[in-house]
Amino acid sequence: MAQQANAVELHNTVKRFGEFTAVHSMSLNVTDGSFVTFVGPSGCGKTTTLRMIAGLENATAGDILIRGQRVNDIPIHKRNLGLVFQNYALFPHKTIFENVAFGLKYRNVDKQTIARRVREALQLVQLPHVEDRLPRQLSGGQQQRIALARAIVIQPDVLLLDEPLSALDANLREEMRVELKRIQRELGIATIFVTHDQAEALAMSDRVVVMSNGFIEQEGTPEEVYNEPASEFVANFLGISNLMSGSVEDASADTVKIAVEGGPHLLAHPREGRGKHKGDRARLAVRAEKVFLAEQHAADDDSVIIDGTIDAVDYQGQAARYFVTAGNLSWQAVNPIDRHPFHEGQAVKLRIRAQDVVLLDPARSGNGAEQAG
Amino acid sequence: MAAVAAEERDLRPWILLSPALTTITLLLAIPTCFVVVYSFWLRTAAGGEQVGFYLDNWIEVLTDQFYRDILFQTFRIAAITTVLCALMGYLPAYFIAFSKMRNKAFLLLLLMLPFWVSYIIRTMSWINILGVSGAVNYVLTSLGIVSEPIQMLYNETTVVLGLIHFLLPFMVLNIYVSLEGIDPNLVDAARSLGSTPFQAFREVTLPLSLPGLAAGGLLCFVLGGGTYITPLILGGPTDAMFANLIYEAIIIQLNWPLGSALSIVLLVVLGAVVLLYNRFLGLGQIRKGFG
């Protein structure tokens, strides 16, 4: 395989609207053929960043490169991008064929080739027989497939998707998620996907860029951002985390021990203790699904076992989310259900494994934390 | 199923509509019937009306070339006005619709401002601008560009000018409403697919705003075709429009039966235009234009 080129590069890109800075100095590489997701709450700058790459907004500062070429001053219609919108944005007065063929008109393609490529694109999105219909005669999911066909038929350098699944209902959304991923793989086209839905981000991406307040909070594979959140914001935004403050009791080569304020001592994995010293303040996170509840746990060296009481149960079918009080601390635990869930008021034991305790970067922990939820 | 539904028809909509229907019946339908009846009466030489069923007015109106000429002239003036309004109205409508200014409402208010001044006064104001002792002639003579004031008023051009002054806001509002309804993402999508701003306008914005143009056009044509004040104030002796004939017949000659027949001709002709329009373009857009 050829050397991994970058489909899109951002170098210290900034976007300001008047006094308001929507995107702070952002740098990022999107490698060829990869699926990168910008995820974050609304107003985090993800859509603005996408619009800057698309050429719908001008960057206030910094460079944007597409295929190594600086595009800051290149207008949108010369950037060769595929753009898909949340509301489909199909041309209501044009047939499906005319919609899909729209971009080819401007690319010196002869009529037969246009017809063939439109057919191929419609086949790819599995809607081969709708050429003569108008967009309003199709369902939302079908319209979004057509919008995708229209964006990919021009063989764009980058596919930009702005919350394309958000307008669909839940079942269809999951179906389209798989479909979109299949098409992206098949075409091997670099894709930037914007969403506020963490499940979409984790399910579809090669790399996830978690954003908040115009900053990149963390960038990495879905596993990295999920299992090793760099900040409190990421820990909270992706899934449910138990967040605690404490101080480092011991940070040796083979064990890290932390005294949690108003709570127990927890063990953490030695990799988490790097650069930490006894007495340091620490913020730590434990994923709710890593808090294992049982009536009895066998003790072992790598776990801490705490006594607790179930306060509330949020039954979810295959799993349950428990609100547990242990000492002065409240925990959330998401556990698969083995026959019956625990009931309210039941005494349980919480088992926290050292490998599941993540120490957050204290320098970044304040950022965006108020939006956690 | 349908039959059952029809039998158990809900009367509530009719009850809610009844005040409006009563008003329309009393103030529009019944008077129109009176006008129809009037048109078959006859004006006597003594100045009174002879009640009866005479076809004299209708024979005169339908056979006299004079009336046909004036009707044609009315159509021509209304059509020219409509086209000019469309050309002149599109740009301001586009500007208001896509302006990023926060005071869009203020711009719309400016558009409505002329309606606060009487239409007659607005029309008369052109005399102060273009008249022999008007502003334009004053400037031209003061600067020595012309030695004698030029007579610019009282021709078809000034009638069209006055009608544009009257009708342009209707056109702008209708175009504005249809432009306002266009999803801005559509233009972005067209641009991302490779079209220049002008190509995107031609392919997306313009076709999607055609219903507004059509609705504004119909309003301008019907309102323009039915006016008599503008030609009366700004037109010359040969620039009469059809409504001027009605005005003449009823107000000047006091010939109500003839005026009635003429009124019905204008009503039928303009009504036919509306129906044709509805047949080909649909009136749903106009309803939107008022909303």
UniProtKB/TrEMBL annotation, chain B:
<dbReference type="GO" id="GO:0005886">
    <property type="term" value="C:plasma membrane"/>
</dbReference>
<feature type="transmembrane region" description="Helical">
    <location>
        <begin position="254"/>
        <end position="277"/>
    </location>
</feature>
<feature type="domain" description="ABC transmembrane type-1">
    <location>
        <begin position="71"/>
        <end position="277"/>
    </location>
</feature>
<feature type="transmembrane region" description="Helical">
    <location>
        <begin position="20"/>
        <end position="41"/>
    </location>
</feature>
<feature type="transmembrane region" description="Helical">
    <location>
        <begin position="127"/>
        <end position="146"/>
    </location>
</feature>
<feature type="transmembrane region" description="Helical">
    <location>
        <begin position="213"/>
        <end position="234"/>
    </location>
</feature>
<dbReference type="GO" id="GO:0055085">
    <property type="term" value="P:transmembrane transport"/>
</dbReference>
<keyword id="KW-0812">Transmembrane</keyword>
<comment type="similarity">
    <text>Belongs to the binding-protein-dependent transport system permease family. CysTW subfamily.</text>
</comment>
<dbReference type="InterPro" id="IPR035906">
    <property type="entry name" value="MetI-like_sf"/>
</dbReference>
<keyword id="KW-0813">Transport</keyword>
<dbReference type="InterPro" id="IPR000515">
    <property type="entry name" value="MetI-like"/>
</dbReference>
<keyword id="KW-1133">Transmembrane helix</keyword>
<feature type="transmembrane region" description="Helical">
    <location>
        <begin position="77"/>
        <end position="98"/>
    </location>
</feature>
<keyword id="KW-0472">Membrane</keyword>
<feature type="transmembrane region" description="Helical">
    <location>
        <begin position="105"/>
        <end position="121"/>
    </location>
</feature>
<feature type="transmembrane region" description="Helical">
    <location>
        <begin position="158"/>
        <end position="177"/>
    </location>
</feature>
<protein>
    <submittedName>
        <fullName>ABC transporter permease</fullName>
    </submittedName>
</protein>
<keyword id="KW-1003">Cell membrane</keyword>
